[in-house]
Amino acid sequence: MSKYTEDDLREELKTKEYEYGFYTDIESETFPNGLNEDIIKAISRKKEEPEWMTEWRLEAFKVWQEMEEPDWANVNYEKPDFQAISYYSAPNSKPKYDSLDEVDPELLATFEKLGISLDEQKKLAGVAMDVVVDSVSVATTFKETLAEKGIIFMSISEAIKEHPELVKKYIGTVVPQKDNFYAALNSAVFSDGSFCYIPKGVRCPMELSTYFRINQAGTGQFERTLVIADEGSYVSYLEGCTAPSRDENQLHAAVVELIALEDAEIKYSTVQNWFPGNAEGKGGVFNFVTKRGLCEKNSKISWTQVETGSAVTWKYPSCVLKGDNSVGEFYSIAVTNNFQQADTGTKMIHLGKNTKSTIISKGISAGKSQNSYRGLVQISPRAENARNFSQCDSLLMGNECGAHTFPYIEAKNKTAQIEHEATTSKIGEDQIFYCNQRGIDTEKAIALIVNGFSKEVLNKLPMEFAVEAQKLLEISLEGSVG
Amino acid sequence: MELKEKLVSSFMAFEDTVDVNSPIHDIRTEAIKTFEADGFPTKKQEAWKYTSLNSILKHDYSVFPKHEDALEFKDVKKYFIHDIDSYKIVFIDGKYSSHLSQTTHDGIDVCLMSAALTKPKYRLVIENYFNKIASKDSMSALNTAFSAEGAYIHIPKNKLVEKPIQILHFSTGNEAALMLQPRNLVVVDENAHVQIIERHQSLTENPVLTNSVTEIFTNKRAIVDYYKIQNDRETASLIDNTFIDQKRESLAKVHTFSFGGKITRNNLNFYQNGERIDSTMKGITIIGNKQHVDHNTLVHHIEPNCESHQDYKGIFGDSATGVFNGKVLVEKEAQKTDAFQANNNILLSDKATINTKPQLEIFADDVKCSHGCTIGQLDESAMFYLRSRGIPEKEARGLLMFAFSNNVLDSVKIPEIKNRITKIIANKLGVNIGFDL
């Protein structure tokens, strides 16, 4: 048997095409390209929104017009033309279904290809799916089970209609409309997304999951997610995505807001595998996401992400540790290959006393990709006894890629304890040698090492998701993950 | 008048004092244009995110001090490392003081920039080295525009300089506010070895702003050992720009001891143009009150098999602010690079601030790069241990802080400097460290 070397792996990585690239032909209702107040009003009308929501969107649009697209991130891309994007598209088979049989069979086939047939998911994983194809929810499962517990889990447009008081109270409190360029854009035009409310003292019995897909040519996807965990509650929320192969850049500017009230805990896991562009770096999704969580007293927010897709990623899931004794966590694996660029990391803002945060970030770059960690740890003057631990490790495969670390650490309190460490390395010849020596062939050895490298983060994923994460890692780094 | 306009307009007056026909002057004119276009750096620039110069730019600095003011050696003796024999280049208010200096042309050149820029015998060196590695940022450009005086050190091949060279800048306070722009050039040829000590000292409370540029060239297998002692008054500010170009197998070490000054900004840049180079930068910062120290380092690994070591310790009390912005850049070709960066800090007060940003930018795959950064307090159990053995709290605290910064002192090769720094640290911490090192 010929020896499998790192060069072979590199070769394989280069030639590996996006496996899940396909396109579902569903008739969509799409708005004309461009963005102005009329389009925003039309979106709002289309979604039968109350007036305050329309006003809120228009306010965001005004702010957005005055903002400039940020360029501080360590990524290069052709800036999207925001007037050449259609801001609304919804699958045509509009009415809600009572059973899966009624769903457009082609759509079901799409899910089948992704290995997430709803039936199977229902039976095996006990995961409730709020499936989002393009921008409108077409199937929601397990709603009744959740309803018994008083848990609200629905699309955000439904929530605006059915629970306006909750949405009105919390939307924009963590990520204000004027927070940044993409957040403002999202606030103005968001088409749909998920809404979740866990009442006081309730432990959500299942993992909540949304499946995002971008499906209509030239349609930007503007998701808005709002998760509220009321006092003493617990929820684990999963989000995962794949997108069809396409020769055109697609924009994705999502906003996710998490609110953990006193003693609550939110675990938010993401697996992202949007189309990363082909081997020449053409096409691929632009992923500009604003994710932030607010922690009240004794609460905890944990972000876990596996980022393998997208041509450009610009994403900093953050925690504002406002309440005393609150905890923020961030676990991330970012894999870049070919011409992918990722600038990702987190912000931990310590405001309350005895707040703790942990950051574990693993970057793997191959091909001609650039992978950056950018993080901020900020200790405010009244955050007594704040504690932070950060670790950023990078693994480089090949000498045409880059790994970068930009940690910002700002401490204004003398009782703060902050540790930061970062390493950059490649798979060591001695590590391979050690494995070979014990009868493990090189391919397996590389798999073993990469797996070990990312284990700390993979372990944090909920069981149901870990399998899928593994699957997605395989696509990006096939041959290296066993 | 704003300082920027004042500087730009005084460039014409400056032209009267220098030879405008020399090629150097083309460099100056180019540089003043850069400064005019860019102006002073602001917090909007990433490299100056945590350091604002506004508070020190408002003074009406005199750019051309009138004349040399004689100082007696006994009055300023304490600012020298006086217990060792050394060459000295001393400037008072920016003017050379022959009285306090001890220069040489015996086998090596330890003399003045003004001579090097004008005399024909230095022309070759100046042409080859002057302003070759200084960056084009606005502060360095400003210095280049007004470059006329400073230290000029040239050590020829295979020469081991037996005595250290001390460069001292005194400001007397004859001017209500003074701006100094010394320009130093250090060229160390193959196999040569030199030790240099640099200090800026203000003698009164009148505000002083020093914007210094030092270019250091270490050729093949050369060794440069550079010590910066910064223990100035709280009315004096320093922007120190040091650029070091290293050729293969050379070794450059820079120790920066920052104990005083209003705003101190150290821009320290290493460029490794050859294989098997070793670059070391270490620093101890102990400040209080409203002082501000910003270390901005860059190590540019361009070729394979090189090393770099960074170790900065900081202790910040009162309302002091410490900034560390270290960047390690490893180019694609620089395989087998071994880069290490550490930054450890202790905050003593709730009003003190630390902003640290240790950056790695890596384009090569076969490298060993790591950085570590901590912010914390003194170990309470260690405190308890010392106190249970009868050491008073203050002394125990002092001992622990001294131990914290001690490994930076380990690599100091001149025992007299080590002693002096130990004393300054003890002084700063308000304790008597009763042991010799």
TrEMBL record, chain A:
Domain SUF system FeS cluster assembly SufBD N-terminal: 131-204
Family: Belongs to the iron-sulfur cluster assembly SufBD family.
Source domain of life: Bacteria
SUPFAM superfamilies to which the protein is assigned, alphabetical: Stabilizer of iron transporter SufD
Domain SUF system FeS cluster assembly SufBD core: 212-453
Annotated protein name in UniProt: Fe-S cluster assembly protein SufB
PANTHER family xrefs: FES CLUSTER ASSEMBLY PROTEIN SUF (PTHR30508), UPF0051 PROTEIN ABCI8, CHLOROPLASTIC-RELATED (PTHR30508:SF1)
UniProtKB/TrEMBL annotation, chain B:
Pfam family, one: SUFBD_core
Highest taxon in the source lineage: Bacteria
Sequence ranges assigned to domain SUF system FeS cluster assembly SufBD core in this UniProt record: 174-404
Start and end residues of each SUF system FeS cluster assembly SufBD N-terminal domain: 4-167
InterPro entries in UniProt: Fe-S_cluster_assembly_SufBD (IPR055346), SUF_FeS_clus_asmbl_SufBD_core (IPR000825), SUF_FeS_clus_asmbl_SufBD_sf (IPR037284), SUF_FeS_clus_asmbl_SufD (IPR011542), SufBD_N (IPR045595)
Family of the protein in this entry: Belongs to the iron-sulfur cluster assembly SufBD family.
Name of the protein this chain belongs to: Fe-S cluster assembly protein SufD
Lineage summary: Bacteria, Pseudomonadati, Bacteroidota, Flavobacteriia, Flavobacteriales
